[in-house]
């Protein structure tokens, strides 16, 4: 069942802080030129409560405040992001329906051979908001406290461990497959539809390993019920400064990051994309956005529509190479 939450703002809502005050005339001009005239739907192609949903709500609130308009978060999960993404691809290119896209958008371009849309031609990126590493965790009850310890245990008992992911070809699956290949171990892959059920099964011991954004498991990391073994970025992340990168543990594994961005249907006027980009940039001074970025180790990007388009294209090429090298399909 989809969950819809409207985020409304009074006309007097305070917008970006003084450091980005120069953007305000641009934002006001965008609104004066007619956009957005009506509430904007932001489609999150996942169930509520996950990393994409949390980031989407924080930015939607701030962007809505900057543009003095209602932004509505609508969760349309299913089929590995395809259902929600296809919904946006078919929407009118007027800026009133947007996609909170993720790295999975780039992955699906290769992973899903018969997508109902073209991952490049059917979308006009407005901006890439932020990126973050994944953190690889085990339940505390397992008694394992480091990635080398996990590898040693998996070698001793090849049938003992299984790992969770958000689906075939997801960044979490690729991270674990890279670890398996580099370490020479075996684990059974168990795909899930949402982080909530995954976390519950980790805590109950039904699965033993999970590489995921820190956002949906922040509470379990804080209370110690999940133990972080490594992060997938090239370097350590400020949100988990004591957790080594995978490479620090001795494994030669390429860095894997998740990203989150605003994509509009193809043909959306450049002026609208520019208004969205400038509103997102101003949102970096919003306290709610600052909190989400800081607490979850997110690196802000907020690039221009032209830069965002190049970014998505480069990501599609990168992930195609990774998927083919790992021989991962959605079969």
Automatic annotation (TrEMBL):
Residues 1-28 form the signal peptide. Belongs to the UPF0065 (bug) family. Coiled coil: none annotated. CDD domains: PBP2_Bug27. Pfam families: TctC. InterPro entries: BUG (IPR005064), Bug_dom1 (IPR042100). This is Tripartite tricarboxylate transporter substrate binding protein. The lineage of its organism: Bacteria, Pseudomonadati, Pseudomonadota, Betaproteobacteria, Burkholderiales. Keywords: Signal.
